[in-house]
Write a structure and sequence with these properties.
This protein is mainly beta. It has one domain (15-184): Pnp Oxidase, Chain A (Roll), CATH 2.30.110. Helices cover 10% and strands 34% of the residues. The chain has helices spanning 53-60, 74-80, 103-107, and strands at 15-16, 18-23, 29-34, 37-40, 43-49, 63-68, 83-84, 98-99, 111-112, 121-122, 127-138, 144-156, 177-179, 182-184. A 7-stranded antiparallel beta sheet has the order 3-2-6-11-12-5-4, covered by helices on one side. The protein is globular and about 60 Å long. The protein starts with 14 loop residues before the first strand and ends in a 22-residue tail after the last strand. The protein binds flavin mononucleotide. Flavin mononucleotide (FMN) binds at residues 17, 30, 32-36, 47-49, 52-54, 77, 81, 84-86, 97, 178.
C-alpha cells in the first residue's frame, strides 16, 4: 500500500443501512433511513440527528423498530432521502428536505404490526428489531443524539433463520451496505470466528 492523505466529504466507511420506524404524536408511523449504528449485547446505539422527527418521536414514545433492508431495497432509501416527517421543516434542512407525512407510502414500503411496540416494522425487510429507547445522550455539538435502544424482539424471514436454533444464517443474510454515499450488496464470505454457530468447522488459519 502507498498511503496518501485523503479528504473524504463524509466518514461513512461501510455500515449496514437501516430504516428506523417511530410513532408520531397522532399515532401514525414515521420512517427514516439511517446508517450510524452499532450493537453490543442486546443494546443498539444509534446516531440520530437532533432536528428530525425521529428524534422527537423517540424522546416522547420509546417503542421503535429498526429494520435492515437487503440490497434490492436501496431505491427506497433514495426515495426517503429528501423527506422529513417534521413540519414545519427545520430551517437548516429547508433547502434539501420536504415534509412527508406518509413515509411508508413515499418509500413504497409496507407497515407491518409489531408485537411489543407501537411503531410498525417494514414488511419488505428480512431482519427487523423491535426496541425500546432507554437513553438519549446529546452529542458534543448537540446536532445529534446517541440513542441507546434495547432490542426486545428480533424477527427474521425464515429463509435466513437456521432450522431449530433461531440463529441467523449469515450466509443467507445480505444486508445493504452504505459506504461513502453508495450502496453495496454484502459481498462474498471471507471467513468466520471459531465461535460461529453456523460453520461446520473452525476456521483454518496459519
Ligand atoms: C442512506 C442514509 C443514511 C442516513 N443515516 C442517518 C443516520 O445514521 N442518522 C440520522 O439521524 N440521519 C441519517 N440520515 C438522514 C435522515 O434520514 C434525515 O435526517 C431525515 O430527515 C430523518 O427523517 P425524519 O426527520 O422524519 O426523522 C440518513 C439518510 C440516508 C439517505
Amino acid at each position: 500500500m502507498a498511503h496518501v492523505v485523503a479528504n473524504p466529504h463524509v466518514l461513512y466507511v461501510g455500515t449496514p443501512a437501516l430504516l428506523v420506524a417511530s410513532t408520531n404524536a397522532d399515532g401514525s408511523p414515521n420512517l427514516a433511513p439511517a446508517s450510524s449504528s452499532w450493537a453490543l449485547g442486546r443494546m443498539l446505539c444509534l446516531g440520530i440527528e437532533a432536528d428530525g422527527q425521529t428524534a422527537l418521536n423517540m424522546a416522547a414514545r420509546a417503542g421503535i423498530t429498526v429494520n435492515y433492508p437487503s440490497a434490492p431495497l436501496w431505491p427506497a432509501l433514495v426515495r426517503l432521502s429528501h423527506l422529513t416527517g417534521r413540519s414545519p421543516v427545520p430551517e437548516a434542512k429547508r433547502d434539501r428536505y420536504t415534509y412527508e407525512h406518509d413515509k411508508f407510502a413515499a418509500a413504497r414500503l409496507t407497515p407491518q404490526r409489531s408485537d411489543l411496540v407501537d411503531a410498525p416494522r417494514v414488511r419488505e425487510c428480512a431482519l427487523q428489531f423491535e426496541a425500546m429507547v432507554r437513553r438519549m445522550t446529546p452529542g458534543l455539538d448537540r446536532s445529534y443524539f446517541m440513542v441507546e435502544a434495547e432490542v426486545v424482539r428480533v424477527h427474521a424471514d425464515e429463509a435466513i433463520v437456521q432450522d431449530g436454533t433461531g440463529e441467523i444464517d449469515p450466509r443467507a443474510w445480505h444486508p445493504l451496505v452504505y459506504a461513502f454515499r453508495h450502496f453495496f450488496d454484502r459481498g462474498a464470505e471471507a471467513g468466520w470466528l471459531p465461535s460461529s454457530r453456523i460453520a461446520e468447522h473452525p476456521p483454518v488459519i496459519d
